[in-house]
Structures are given as C-alpha cells and as structure tokens.
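User: Hello! I'm new to structural biology and keep hearing that structure can be predicted from sequence alone. Could you demonstrate with Polyamine aminopropyltransferase? Please show me the input and the output so I can see what each looks like.

Assistant: Of course. The first part below is the input, the amino acid sequence of Polyamine aminopropyltransferase. The second part is the output, the predicted structure written as tokens.
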Amino acid sequence: MSQPSWFTEAHEGSGSSIGYRIERLLHAEKTPYQTIEIYQTTDWGNLMVIDGCIMLTSRDNFLYHEMMTHPALFTHARAKRVVIIGGGDCGTLREVLKHEEVEHAVQVEIDERVTRLAEQYFPELCASNADPRAELLFIDGIRYMAECEPDSLDVVIVDSTDPVGPAEGLFNAAFYASCFKALRQGGILVQQSESPLAHLDLIRAMRGAMRSAGFHALRTLPFPQPCYPTGWWSCTMARKGADLAGFRERGAATKQFATRYYNAETHKAALAQPEFLREALGD
C-alpha cells in the first residue's frame, strides 16, 4: 500500500507546521502575481495554496469569512456601501451580501485568476457573485483606495494574504490613511491581523499605523482558524469618529440569514480578550 501524500506548510517563525493529507493535485499555475495550487484533500475538501501558503479549505473557511464580515457589519448602524480589498475567493463578498441593508459591495482583487479558480473549485463561496449589488474589479486595491471619493464608504474589509508580495502595501499607514479618508463618520475598517500567538509584533505595528492614520477606536478579535499558523487567527477593527464598545446585539441575535460560526454570543466572546493580548495591546 502506498504512503499517503501530504501538503505541509512550515511556519519558521513559530517553529510549527500544518499539513493536510492529499488525494491529488487539481490545478497549478503561475500568474503574473503569484503561484496558485488547488488540491483535493481526504478530509478537508479542496485546499487553495498561494506561494506555498495555505489560503483556505472547503471545511473551515466559514470561520474566517464570517468573522471578517459580521462583527463589522453588526457594529455599524447601517452599512450601505462596502469595499473588500482582496478576498478573491469571494467568501467574504458572499457574507457581506447576506446583509439586506448593503446596497453596493465592491470586491477589488488584483489577481483575477484567484476568483476564476474559486468559481471552479469553491463554487459555494461564489454564490453571490451575480448579485446585482456586487461589483468585481480586478485592479490594484492600494490604488483603488487612494483614488476613492472621500466620505463615500461605510465599511472597508481588507481580506488579504500575509504582508508579503502583492499584499505588503496593505499593512502600512499610507494605505490606512486612504481608508480613513474614504470612510464616512462612524465607518469601520477591518483587516485580517494574523495569529495573536505568533504575530503580536505585527498586530502592534498594524494598530500603531492605524492610529497614525487617524483611527483611535481599535479592537482585535481572535477566532479559531485551523488551517492558519497556530490554528488561532484574528481580525482588527478600526473606526472613524466613533467607538467600538458595543454592537447591534439584538440584530445579531435575530439575524435572518444562516451562519455556521458567527452569532451574537461568539461576537461577544471575541470582544473578551485574553489577558496576554490585553496586556500586549493595551486594551
């Protein structure tokens, strides 16, 4: 009997690795921006890998997409205009469009091939791509935000890869200043912010850059994510001209759409930071 094949991603910074048992390679290509691979696993559905880093699996991506979306949209009073920077697999777009108050959601992904491969291998994530409220653009998100009309957006979601390669420019004060300018009063920026266990220095640097761009209300929300380093991930919310002390708890508790992880209780739980994170971030 042949030995099973595994895809393993080593995380040098944390001295750990994550691996998945593979049935076969479904697709591999090098785009002008990155190398994308799609595998079929034995237990986790399809697996997308970009430049050797695990992006998502069919089995657990709902954790990330729901937490990148619903805490921000249930914190905002009524988000009508939303921009997603990155998010080429379209899972975040799908979650955003579950909110009836959203009138227009723009997804700005630099690499169109990510979306086209998601449509083929993760079609459930692309179920809302044809929604008339959705607009998919395949351009540079940094430039898009820099050219955005001031005070025109309610929520900006930065659903990016790690801060290397095409995503490196999404983690600095200049980009956050563009987001701040584009947001209306009370608007919210939310960005994936890596693992609280392995990337505290990055989280602190992100938050410092957000403050220097004008955001003063910040919250980092941890959540489980088995396919990412340490199995524990986070997103960081920053708000323009308002605090992040509460959210529309009743609305979250009575939401009229299905989720698999997010609810009012998991939202409250994410706001209750563990002691080491509170001490490290000064919240």
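User: So the tokens describe the shape?

Assistant: Right, they're a compact way of writing down the 3D structure. Reading them back into a model, for example: The chain has two domains: 5-57, 61-281.
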